[in-house]
Amino acid sequence: MEFFRIQRDIPFMRHALVFNVISLLTFLVAVFFLVTKGLHLSIEFKGGTLIEASYAQAADIGKVRSTVEAMQVGEVQVQSFGNTRNVLIRLPVSGDGKLGDMVDRVFGELCKAEAGTVSKKQVKTDKGEVIDKPVCEAGSAEPVTLQRSEFVGPQVGKELAEDGAKALAFVVIGITIYLAFRFEWKFSVAAIVANLHDVVIILGFFAFFQWEFSLSVLAAVLAVLGYSVNESVVIFDRIREAFRRYRKMDTHQVIDHAITSTMSRTIITHGSTQMMVLSMLIFGGPTLHYFAVALTIGILFGIYSSVFVAAAIAMWLGVKREDLMKSGPSKDVDPNDPNAGAVV
Amino acid sequence: MNRYPWWKYTILAIALLVGVTFTLPNFFGEAPAVQVSSGKATLKVDSTTAQRVEQVLKDAGLKPDFVQFEGSSVKARFADGDSQLKAKDALAKALNPDLNDPSYIVALNLLSRSPHWLTAVHALPMYLGLDLRGGVHFLMQVDMKAALTKKAESLAGDIRTLLRDKNLRHAGITRDGNNVDIRFRDRETLNAAATLLADQMAELQWAQTPDGTDFKLTGTLKPEAARLVQDAAIKQNITTLHNRVNALGVAEPVIQQQGTDRVVIELPGVQDTAKAKDLIGRTANLEFRLADMSLEARAAVEGTGPVPFGRERFTVGRGAPVVTHKEAVATGEMLTNAQPRPDQNGQPAVSVSLDAKGGRLMRDMTRANVGNFMAAILFEKGKGEVLTVARIQSEFGNDFQITGMGTTDAANDLALLLRSGSLAAPMEFIQESTVGPTLGADNIAKGFDSVIYGFTAIAVFMCAYYLLFGLFSTAALAFNLLLLVAVLSMLQATLSLPGIAAIALTLGMAIDANVLINERVREELRGGASPQAAINTGYERAFATILDSNVTTLIAGIALLAFGSGPIKGFAVVHCLGILTSMFSAVVFSRGLVNLWYGRQKKLKGVLIGQVWKPKTTSTDVSANT
Questions:
Q1: How many other C-beta atoms are found inside a 10 Å radius of the C-beta of residue B254?
Q2: In whole angstroms, what separates CA B31 from the centre of its chain?
């Protein structure tokens, strides 16, 4: 099997301007949504309480909402989570009292709404672990169970947001320095601009659809940043090699050649990674859902930006053969090497 | 050219062996077990406890798989949950004479079912995070401002005593925030006091300021002293928390410092946050009391007479039973420090510091009681536990030593216990999360499914597209997974759901290296290179690219590791480790396989790497050689 049967180099750079305009527009649209709609931050960043409860029957979201709203604890969000029986309740940070008690209070109210009473019970799991847990009982039935709860104080949330920003800055600076050292500053600037534009576009998607932006999404965004820089690195590697090998080609042709010859690898690699991510999207359940979504967007735009944006920016910045000849490690091709050359 | 020297194969074989050994425990599942650990800080669990547990189980007619002493607890594994429960009851009854005040914590736990030889080489299953096994997580903030204020308060008291002892008259000592202000009527006294204080109160930085007609001396806590105070505060709080969490009977609690002023508490298996918070947030108190050694009291100690009026009898702890006066000489609040420090003869001892008030009380008491005994008693939930009973050798004040410890360990323990009496600074819950056990199991299943199906999809594709080389790549990817799981098991790094996601993602990214190599080899073949040469140059050329791309991914991973916390850290650890293992498996291991298969064939006609398509007309401008 061979998917990519490309006769001659595809003249990508002839359309560089068009691609860059498209990129710029997408970027601006993403920024627009980020500014106007903002990110729907998870409670990890904002602080607040989150409760996941599971009902014996399909949950009545409206009833849950009115039950919790009756407690007057501020703006309440209720949504189903994963399936119809699970509900996710989000409460904001309220200024008074002990926030941590909120979970017990809300669970108590939910239980009361199902005509049950909460009692502490020692439950033995199938594994033999004995756990103490509050159980809601109505007769012999258990109408609602507490699956998970989380409480984040406001100061923690603020710190997490700051740490996230620091991590992003560290990645950007680290990669820029590494690429500048390994290739040349024009390449490193091009790669970082291209991939940051991916990050902004991912964030734009999250802002537009108001998907929840949690810590794991942040991890995905940063992982994808490192990953799509790979893509640029592979292409830059080829550009350097082509500059050395084909002295007759001009910069345009060299870039076209580099992109064309890595095309097959680009698609196959990203396809494989995407298969894994797709598997997470399908089988990973609701907790990994947005993580996988962020990765998917990142991978798709990663291909686009590395191929069409990074190389084009490097071209606008005016990469020349001389830039790479003097820098870079001296593993030049030995003209007497029988294996050298003869590469399409 | 495609042969590895024998040592490279040896390294690969060893890596494979180690990988398999450390991955194995994850497949055996877990068996019910009973864990016995100490419920009292004065009680140590050791190998004799293991013998005792064994005996108790034998008497109860139970046959555990094994009983072993490990770390600070004794674990006994059982074949089924029924005998586990019976064993728990039997042990609890035998080890704890008073069930309301247990000396040992007997908790149900799960132990790996893996054979003994695996456990013996420390091959343990991966350590699952709370989101996978269920439990409670707390993050507590220590109020450092309160710790500093408390310190300033105690320093102000010390200064008062010091000035009085030296007959320096002041016009008032006040604490202002973390500063201590002293006013003087005249300059001479101020100067005398300034010299004295600079000498004796090295923790404070002194400055003179005029204050109306008076003279004012302001002491500010030096930054390094403040840091010491904060360090000591968080250490003491963690010790106290350990003692409290022990009382919950949790099998494997985690209590760690995070940053400079935070404490993380993780209690696997606990679902009842309210009870946990009640226990963690409660207060304990330490009291120094004069022991009563009168005849009546001795009779009470031996249980042959009633406890005299105004006395109390303690039966638990070191030096117990003992009868003491009911009123305390000094309490935990007055204790400023307790450190293990050898005495002048080099024997292990604990040196204790009290604040000025405590010192004064202690001096008054000891003056009249040289030769008598004093006891330190820790009260928790109204129950007293004796920490030590010691003879008063001479009159003493703020600083004194408790000697006759016997061993350095005992001195360390006592110092820790004295300090753990109460929290050094108040704490507040700033984050908490609970995960139900069913949700945890569900998360494991989902994460596992994602990895398996994704892996299968990649494997099928690679084998179809690159044929034999695809098979090699798949084997390398499987090897990568094996190594990653082995390393995670070896390091006992916490595996959480984001960690599983990182395994999946890392595998998805790791295949990139093999795609790069395979594409390069194809390219070389397309260019007309001989199969052996194509393999060689393919691997060599691809390596520089693989290195570059992995370094950039690693930079992102390290950033996440450095700045992330909680789920991000869980993701980053696995991600970084995965990048390292993938470099090894994709390049070294897959090359090893290829070399084994093709390396020996001198006249290799072709390689099974799928169809190598050649363009019909080679475009002239690219075929030129350098």
A1: 16
A2: 25
CB interface of B with A, residues 71-110, below 8 Å: 81, 84, 108-110
pLDDT at position A35, please?
A: 94
- CA end-to-end distance (rounded Å), chain B: 24
- How many C-beta atoms lie closer than 10 Å to residue A128's C-beta? 20
B622 touches chain A (CB under 8 A): yes
Instruction: Note which residues in 466-505 of chain B have CB less than 8 A from chain A.
Output: 497-498, 501-502, 504-505
Q: In B, which residues are within 8 Å of A152 by CB distance?
A: 430-431
Q: How confident is the model at residue A342 (pLDDT cuts 50, 70, 90)?
A: very low
**Lateral strand order in the sheet of B179-184:** B173-176, B179-184, B214-221, B204-211
Chain A hits for B81, CB-CB cut-off 8 Å, are 124, 128
Provide the residue ranges of all domains of chain A, joining segments of one domain with +: 12-42+155-326, 48-152
Instruction: Report the alpha-carbon angle A72-A77-A78, nearest 5.
Output: 110
Q: For residue A154, give both structure tokens.
A: 């406001």
- Distance, CA of B352 to CA of B336 (rounded, Å): 8
Q: Determine the distance in angstroms separating the CA of B615 from the nearest CA of chain A, rounded to an integer.
A: 6
Distance in angstroms (rounded) separating the CA atoms of residues A146 and A133:
9
CATH topology of domain A48-152: Alpha-Beta Plaits (3.30.70)
- State how far residue B519 is from chain A, nearest Cα, in angstroms: 6
Which pair of tokens denotes residue B182? Answer: 């002293």
User: How many angstroms away from the CA of A102 is the closest CA of chain B?
Assistant: 11
Surface of B (111-170) touching A: CB under 8 A: 134, 139, 141
Q: Do B545 and A234 touch (CB under 8 A)?
A: yes
pLDDT tens profile B115-158: 888 878 888 888 888 888 888 888 888 888 878 887 787 788 77
Eight-class DSSP state of B122: T
Looking at chain A, which residue has its C-alpha nearest residue B512?
A269
> ipTM, 2 decimals?
0.82
Contact at CB, B567 and A219, closer than 8 angstroms: yes
Q: What's the pLDDT band for B616 if we cut at 50, 70, 90?
A: low
Rounded to a whole number, what is the distance in Å from the CA of B432 to chain A's nearest CA? 5
CA–CA dist B406, B349 (Å, integer):
8
Q: What is the pLDDT of residues B177-219, one digit of tens each?
A: 788 888 888 888 888 888 888 888 778 888 887 777 778 888 8
Mean residue pLDDT of chain B comes to: 82
Q: Do B324 and B387 form a contact (C-beta atoms < 8 A)? A: no
Q: Element (H or E) spanning A40, and its range?
A: strand A40-41
Protein fold of A12-42+155-326: Multidrug efflux transporter AcrB transmembrane fold (1.20.1640)
Residues 272 to 311 of B: which have CB under 8 A from any A CB?
272-275, 277
Residue type, B446: K
Residue B493: which of B126, B131, B18, B136 has the closest Cα? B126
Count of C-beta atoms within a 10 Å radius of residue B439: 21
Higher pLDDT, B14 or A119: B14
What CA–CA distance (Å, rounded) separates B173 from A229?
64
